[in-house]
Amino acid sequence: QVQLVESGGGLVQAGGSLSLSCAASGLTFSSYAMGWFRQRPGEARVFVADINMSGDSTDYADSVKGRFTISRDDAKNTAYLQMNNLKPEDTAVYYCNAERFWGQGTQVTVSS
Question: pLDDT tens-digit profile of 21-31?
């Protein structure tokens, strides 16, 4: 079965960095665009970033442009989200997405 497993979340001070990983299995990774979403307590899950199948096109939410970078390594069946200059408002559970498939999420907490 398809599995998306996120890792790399944690607690960081404002201005710091974290790197999230999403390890995929059970699917042909190179055939899927990959995305990251986040969900704050009491709020809906929202788009953060995505990358196309070939890895040459990315898109970002306005709130993270210039601070976050999405990438993929098809040889490792893994997608990444590098998050720099983190802000308290980036605190959320971050989810990896491949079309209809979702990971279980990883918590990111940014302290002020």
Answer: 999 999 999 99
